[in-house]
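Quick one: structure tokens for this chain, please?
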Amino acid sequence: MYITTATFDNTTESTESTGSSESPELTGSSGSSESTERKNPESPSAPTDTPGVVSQQYAIWRFLQACQSRSQFPVKFNGQIFVAQSGVNPDFRDWGGANWWQNARLAYWNMFNSGDSDLLLSMFEYYLNMLPLAIYRSEIYFNISGGAFWPETQVIFGTYYDSDYGCGSARNGFPTSIPNSRWNRYNYQGGLDLSMLIIDHYNYFQDTNIFKRYLPVVTAVIQFYANRWTELDRNGKIIFFPSQAIETWQCVTYPPVTSDCVTNDTPDIAGLYGVLSRLLALPNGLLPMNFITLCKNLNSRLPPIPTGTKNGNPVFLAGEKLPSGTSNSENPELYVLHPYRVVTAATKQMAVNSYNSRQFKCNQGWCQDLMNAVLLGLTTETMNQVIDRANTAPATGYRFSGFMPHFQDYEPSADHLSNMNTALQWMLVQGDDQTNDVLLFPAWPCKLWNVDFKVRGPLNTVVEGKYVNGKLLDFNVTPASRRNNVKFVACATM
């Protein structure tokens, strides 16, 4: 993707968005006569114009992902394969050798629109290899046959990170199924996030063999959720208790009590709605009939996603019942946007209200503000956050512009530019989850940035062309039969 500045004359028309190659090439700028300078005095040869910086960082991070996405392990969020600067131990990294799903997943969400199908497979294979252990753990811990869950924090073998599970006397008072660390004691929703990635892979690349290979991961996750919580409310809906809303709202004590724990957390419920609706929309013959029945039954027992009011406006909530204090800085109520995409036209304003009133505002590392903003079509806000990330100077001691600072992880951080690339792609192209249409320019700054692009949308659709000063040039859709399924949200003048 390569961006340059758009320059309009008085006769050029353009529509401002409300808001690659299989890696788009972007041309654009902030529209200002003043260029945005990189915060990197050690690299004077780096571009200093806004579109040049964004384009360079996009390409660099895609390259770095490709360098490390074909091994048998996920991209390491805390230092990647490039930790070398520590004066004590060149293998040292904060958070150690374990993987946090919240962090590890982020490098993979930008691989659909760029067409990097093969880079996703190492993540899927990693979890498929751990599936027998996860199924066995589910049976031993919860007496759930055929179900699987993965801890939020786990070592490469799929077991709990030892400091979270607890060792020796730290296990006193805890049953086998409960880790002694409350930070992720009931955080299971990573399996749903992974399931979304597997389903999206099929929707984008239409590879039935790959989907069937990793479908056992998805079926085991759904089997776990169908049996993990058995208590129903008076309407016959599952009561998700005890649960937690990512790491932000946790159960403070063990055994849990409703006054200081989470009931009906939004990430789990939204995740189930997102995954189940997509499974049930798949073509006939892809899913076994008994699994379809399980999905329909579980879907019928889901409670509504928690909602309420804030400042007089309707909003999504992090959970139906929450403890008084927070422990981290995620916004779990916004999981209705990313990663689960369950917001509809009817609930979009509620999602906008939720975004505007979110408790934690952040544009560093794993923070998801810019992905949520772009899914809402908030063009200027997304663009500014993308620019801010692209202009981040390398970590102390590094000169290469792709090696990002520590933030919440460890330098060079993988999450910072992962999220930038995802948001940048979604500014240019998104898939319509109901129709599988390709939505072009859903949050593109039409009057500021031009773009030379070749991107992939749902159903193996490749769209390429150039948007230059309000004109769409060299436009092509492959296969041609999908041409009418490409919808221009903004920008395009033929």
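The chain is about 30% helix and 10% strand.
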